[in-house]
Structure formats: structure tokens, C-alpha cells
Amino acid sequence: MLRHEFRPGRLVAGVTGLVVATVYGGDAAGSWDVPWYAAVPILFCGLVLAAAAAWAGYRVRRRRAARAASADGADAPARTSGSHAIR
């Protein structure tokens, strides 16, 4: 059993942050010269990729949950949310 579900968007966003930190760390160490605005395209592309990965992961989890619910065979009650479920 998994402790938590895999979130690929968070992984890509974290790697993007590490790439930006590495680029500026290399600039601070004197390994290469990076202009101040270099983080903008790296960050933008990384966040777009993270959004795409998060969307794809959401669709996979949703499809997997729907498949498991249909194979389960146990129907949920007609009303399980809201104030009527408490009464």
C-alpha cells in the first residue's frame, strides 16, 4: 500500500527550482556568466511542464479511481454528502 500518491507536477516543479538554483549557483561560483533574466524562461518553461505533468497525473488518477469503482460492484448510497448525510 502506498503512503501517498505520486504527484509528477510537484516533482517537475522541484526539479525546475533546482535547475534555477544550479544556474545561479554556477554564476555565483564564477563557473559561467548568466544574465539576471535567465531565470524567467527557465522558470516559465518548467512551470508549464509541471502544469502539464500535474494535469496528466490527475487524469491518470481519476481514470484509475473510476476503473476501480466500477470493478468494485458496491454502489454508494444515493446521498453521502452534505447536511442530509448527517441526519
In short:
It is built from two helices and no strands.
Strand content: under 5%
Please tally the helical runs, counting DSSP H or I stretches of 4 or more residues. 2
- Which spans of ≥5 residues are poorly predicted at pLDDT below 50? none
| Rg on CA atoms, Å | 21 Å
Overall geometry comes to elongated
What is the subunit arrangement here? Answer: single chain
Main β sheet profile: none
Q: What's the average pLDDT?
A: 84
Summing up helix and strand content along with how strands pair, one would put the structural category as mainly alpha
Spatial gap, N to C terminus: 33 Å
Residues in helices, as a percent range: 55-70%
Secondary structure tally: strands? 0
Series of secondary-structure elements, N-terminal to C-terminal:
HH
Keywords: Membrane, Transmembrane, Transmembrane helix
Transmembrane segments: 35-58
Region (Disordered): 67-87
Biased composition (Low complexity): 67-79
Write up what this structure looks like.
This protein has 87 residues and is an all-alpha fold. The chain has a domain of 30 residues. The chain has 2 helices and no strands. Helix 1 runs antiparallel to helix 2. The relative contact order is 0.14. Keywords: Membrane, Transmembrane, Transmembrane helix.
What is this structure's SSE topology?
Elements: H1 8-29, H2 39-72
Helix pairs in contact: 1-2
Region (Disordered): 67-87
Keywords: Membrane, Transmembrane, Transmembrane helix
Transmembrane segments: 35-58
